[in-house]
Design a protein that fits this description.
mainly alpha, single chain, elongated, 7 helices, about 230 residues
Length: about 230
């Protein structure tokens, strides 16, 4: 009973959590939009975690030659950053494009002027007349028509937006940009490392070169060494 009561209280607390309630309401009101947003968010999270893991692995992978590790890590870093930003851009750009693309592709079924709806309504009345039924002059199917249109638009939008983000962005744009950007990142990393090395060398105490040692210092050193061996 204790486990059951604790589980019930925990479940009740979770269901009463306001952000979760808002998310559930959002899924109920706009299921297609909520599903699309959740899917792209999961893709971005996965790529962000993968980017970090790949960079860490490349920097400490002993199987990769030491002089190549920075370039491989830079390539992984640019790949990860490009994957995230290009997916966001392509996803929302496609969402904007779909508003005009959908009516153009399916203008014979869902036109903006409503001519298709008028044709369907007229056809229904003609069928009623042929069947000997009373023709309903007040017939309206706009509500059902709009519902079907929204369902088709949501499905079309969901597929095209995710395709733009996960296929076009990751498989076309990113490979085209990643390599030249990785080279630039690598050069910046090398430049930064060289500057740090130069600073360390400047702060390190420098020994006098042999050609700058005075003759008196050399003679004194030799005398001390001879005295040591005489003893």
């Amino acid at each position: 009973m204790t486990i059951t009561s604790v589980g019930a209280k925990a479940l009740g607390a979770v269901t009463n959590f306001k952000p979760l309630q808002k998310a559930c309401n959002y899924f109920e009101k706009e299921p297609a939009r909520a599903l699309a947003m959740t899917t792209i968010a999961s893709c971005l999270t996965k790529d962000a975690i993968g980017c970090y893991m790949y960079v860490e692995q490349s920097l400490h992978n002993e199987k990769i030659p030491e002089d190549k590790r920075k370039f491989v890590a830079a390539l992984d870093l640019t790949n990860g950053i490009l994957n995230i930003f290009t997916q966001i851009i392509c996803f929302f750009a496609m969402r904007k494009i779909n508003q005009s693309l959908f009516p153009k592709l399916f203008k014979k079924s869902f036109d903006k002027k409503g001519n298709v709806l008028k044709t369907i309504t007229t056809q229904i009345r003609m069928n009623q007349k042929k069947a000997g039924q009373k023709v309903d002059r007040k017939l309206t199917i706009k509500k059902e028509y709009d519902k079907i249109r929204k369902t088709c638009y949501d499905c079309f939008s969901f597929v095209t937006e995710l395709a733009a983000a996960t296929i076009f962005a990751k498989r076309v744009i990113v490979p085209f940009l990643a390599t030249p950007l990785a080279e630039k990142v690598k050069n910046k990393m090398n430049k930064k490392e060289a500057e740090e090395t130069e600073i360390k060398q400047e702060t390190k105490p420098q020994e006098k070169p042999l050609n700058e040692i005075k003759p008196q210092e050399t003679e004194a050193t030799q005398t001390k060494l001879l005295d040591k061996y005489k003893k």
